[in-house]
TrEMBL record:
Residues 61-99 are annotated as: Disordered. This is Nif11 domain-containing protein. Residues 68-98 have a biased composition (Basic and acidic residues). It comes from Actinomadura rubrobrunea. Residues 1-48 form the Nif11 domain. It holds the Pfam family Nif11.
Length: 330
């Protein structure tokens, strides 16, 4: 096990088309370690952090030494990522409207209505897994009604901020204690569970889904997260501002909701008006939204499954031009 082995793997992963493609389906560090081990590279999470930092520092040094060359190289790399049929390289910074009351911040579709998504529907049974390595009893013990209730508060308001500050103080007091559980993340990240018999089938399905989506969008697509929301689960208010860009989520549940007024939902705060927008969910849907970094454009959002259904969501980083490949929305 070593940083050197990891560094070698990361360099190969950047060049080898097969590994590069597989890496687009991975979001968990344990997944990367498992994939590398299959190819004879052996390293730990700590090694991966150290090797990534080393490679990033080298790249930064190279760019500082020869900014023009680096820009040119990155440009070439970007173009390599894009399918020949769709040259979108110059459109990335176009169309950046100011926050406005009438602006649309999300788009939703039924999975079944989207052209090219049939192969993805076929993969859903292999994606919607419940890894046996998840301790559901322990998971349910971590549920807190007051945390769930915070999703009804406007994140820009004083009540939410007071609650958040109190929780932060409690978590600081608890640091190093027996707790250590993230209160804002009461759900299961499937990509943190690689030591179960179904993982290889799950990974193969994720890899096929990336290929199918790249066919749809004619550009690079990668997973951003694969989440299982068991009954009474939630992801509290957050902005994802460190990962800007368009996000696509495929959302599905294990059965229809009996009551359309009592469903899982995605909620966001309209950056222009402050209004809370609640998007109720149904089986097999697709949602697009854009994560921005500027303070006045942050998209505060949260996800809640207050029902007794199981919900899954599979997130992807999709190209800026995604809408050109899908039917127009009214
Ligand atoms: Fe998010």
């Amino acid at each position: 096990m070593s940083v050197e082995s990891c560094t070698r793997f990361l360099r190969v992963a950047a060049e080898d088309p097969r590994i590069r493609q597989q890496m687009k389906a991975l979001t968990g560090v344990e997944e990367v370690i498992r994939l590398a081990r299959a190819d004879g590279y052996d390293f730990t999470v700590g090694d991966l952090r150290a090797a990534s930092a080393k490679i990033a520092a080298e790249a930064a040094r190279r760019q500082a030494a020869a900014p023009r060359d680096a820009d040119a190289r990155r440009d070439v790399d970007d173009r390599r990522d894009v399918d020949d049929r769709c040259d979108v390289g110059d459109r990335r910074d176009a169309d950046r409207p100011e926050p406005a009351a009438g602006r649309v911040y999300h788009y939703e579709y039924d999975l079944d209505e989207l052209p090219g998504f049939a192969p993805i529907i076929d993969e859903l049974p292999r994606l919607k897994i419940k890894p046996p390595t998840v301790d559901l009893a322990r998971f349910h013990e971590a549920f807190r009604e007051e945390d769930l209730a915070s999703t009804s508060l406007a994140p820009s308001g004083p009540e939410y901020r007071a609650w958040r500050d109190r929780v932060a103080a409690e978590e600081a007091d608890d640091a190093g204690g027996a707790g250590g559980v993230r209160r804002d993340f009461h759900l299961i990240n499937l990509d943190e569970h690689v030591a179960h018999p179904g993982y290889d089938d799950y990974l193969a399905a994720k890899t096929r889904v990336v290929a199918a989506l790249e066919e749809v969008f004619g550009a690079e697509v990668r997973f951003s997260g694969s989440m299982w929301y068991p009954p009474s689960s939630y992801r509290l208010w957050h902005t994802n501002e460190d990962q800007p860009g368009w996000r696509m989520y495929i959302v599905d549940v294990d059965d229809e909701f009996a009551d359309p007024e009592h469903t899982s939902f995605f909620r966001y705060q309209n950056p222009a008006t402050g209004e809370l927008v609640t998007l109720r969910e149904r089986p097999r849907m697709v949602r697009f939204f854009k994560i921005e970094q500027e303070p006045d454009r942050l998209l505060w959002h949260c996800i809640v499954n207050p029902t007794d259904r199981h919900r899954w969501s599979f997130g992807f980083v999709v190209p800026e031009h995604w809408a050109e490949r899908l039917p127009e929305r009214s």
